[in-house]
Amino acid sequence: MLPLRLSPLSSAALLAIGALLATAPSFAASNIHGRLCRCLPEQPCWPSPAVWSAFKETVNGNLIATFPAARECHDPYYDKAKCDVIQRGYYDDDWRRATPGALLQTNWETFHGQGCLGTNQSTPCYQGAVPVYTVKATSVADVQQTVRFASKHNIRLAIKNTGHDFLGRSTAPSSISLWVTAMNDIQVVDEFFIEGAPQGTQGVAAIVLGPGAVWGDVYKAIDPYNRVVVGGDYDSVGAVGGFCLGGGHGPLSPRHGLCVDNVLQYKVITADGEVRIANDYQNQDLFWALRGGAPGFAVVVEAVYRTHPALKNINYAQATVSSDDADTMNKVVRDFYSRHDSWSDEGWSGYTAATPKAIVIQYFLPDASVDQAKASIQPFLDYARSFPNVVVVNDTVDHYPTFYALFQARGDALFGQKAAGVNALLGSRLIPRTMFQSDGGIDLLSSTLVKVQDELTQIWPEAGFLVQFVAGGQVSLGNSHDTSVTPAWRDALLLFIGAIEWNDDTPYSAQRVDQRKLTRSIGRLRKITPGGGTYHSEADPNEPDWQESFFGTNYPRLRSVHDQYDPNSLFVCRRCVGSEDWDNDLLCRTHH
């Protein structure tokens, strides 16, 4: 058991954290007192109780001793009443994002395979990767104080909003968490004047967001103004942080570009604790890096996005196409992908869930009639029905007056499902449009996908692809004159995402084996798209050559901007710019 200094917040609470901290990295003695490694709770460099007490006052008392979300369902902390609440919320996204120690995917709450998962009273409970403290920030000043405190005491800092995070970037072991969910202001403005712009510069219709805003609330707020904004498909995804910093895509992206193409201005806190405005006229290099370079440069405390006139209407096409015959299904799927080049020209976007035996389609066509939408999608459905062993069900085209009306009708998650409270890992690849413009390209893609799907189902029987039809159109052209998002987005048409899951009781060694299999399997898509890339917010955390895959030719410049604004890597995160200088746990530097 590791000793832990007690905080005046609650001696009992911190004793419990000490009991949970069963393992920690071993550091060479020469590193413990220097700046080469982050300070850990059991080390003399960790702040004293008096220091923590003083810090708590500077953040208006918003300092929380943080525990694993399921702690009270495990011995020796078991509490039946509290465990009942945990059991009711464990797989609920809303409960998870309202709980300081919880993330959407539970595997990121673990550290080296140890955590506190599920509600089985007899299983072990460790602190894992759950931060030791959380600051629930309610103001810019709270953010500044937390950044300065973490920097001064050399403590690992994790930044979190909702916990929708497929690379585990919003948590860290032995860290302090900066939780911005309460800073969720939303303001729709007819004319936003970019700070520092020349006199006479015209205002822009925009929406101003706090870092805790989520897309469901944003869409609701903007709808009465007859405007739309490029955002995600999932209502509880944060609208400001990792989503847009990494690029940000959604159903309206082919019409209006990526989220980064629509950013007008950021207000951020940099590693020195100072407030900075980043736009086309101030801190332009930082503004460029924040539009696609991922988290790891600063804490965004306000984002301003361009808005667009409301759609005249939007069509929503659904269909489930299935067959037990693999050869037949492969032909149907090949035909499906062959139509995407022309569908892109017509303005379609959307999502497909694909398994070896079925595809479930949810596609959108704005500003067109129902008859036009049906005429466009029907030839594919007719082709599928030409096979006697293919079943087509739920094939409908519905018509909605606004984007928000469609968003409400579909529910709050893709395919009406949520994926909270499970252990999951993704792998992904952007597929260039040129691959859809020749029979050879379609054949190569289709045959590769068959192999990848077969391999993924051997890892996890329910595995499949989420195919995101969110590129092409304006994404290819770009609305912003200069962003740092990987150039692969500008050449792509579809984003393929493969996923695996595992049970809480799966041994850590077996998890690692399956994760390596996932990386190798997605490698088949990397092989047929040389020089391409992927969307790093929905990617494999073990992505090989990640600098190239995530950032492409922008990486050298991104590294230069990072070193200018965060030379000590206070904001270091997994597979973020500059993280190659740190060990796998991001607790010790390996290079200078």
From TrEMBL:
Identify the keywords attached in UniProt to this record, alphabetized. FAD, Flavoprotein, Oxidoreductase, Signal
The signal peptide here is 1-28
From the UniProt record, which GO molecular function terms apply? FAD binding; oxidoreductase activity
What is this protein's record name?
Answer: FAD-binding PCMH-type domain-containing protein
Pfam families attached here? BBE, FAD_binding_4
Q: Which PANTHER family match?
A: BINDING OXIDOREDUCTASE, PUTATIVE (AFU_ORTHOLOGUE AFUA_1G17690)-RELATED, FAD-BINDING PCMH-TYPE DOMAIN-CONTAINING PROTEIN
The record's comment on protein family reads: Belongs to the oxygen-dependent FAD-linked oxidoreductase family.
- Stored InterPro entries: BBE (IPR012951), FAD-bd_PCMH (IPR016166), FAD-bd_PCMH-like_sf (IPR036318), FAD-bd_PCMH_sub2 (IPR016169), FAD-linked_Oxidoreductase (IPR050416), Oxid_FAD_bind_N (IPR006094)
* Cofactor requirements of the protein: FAD
The FAD-binding PCMH-type domain is annotated at 127-310
Instruction: Name the domain of life this protein comes from.
Output: Eukaryota
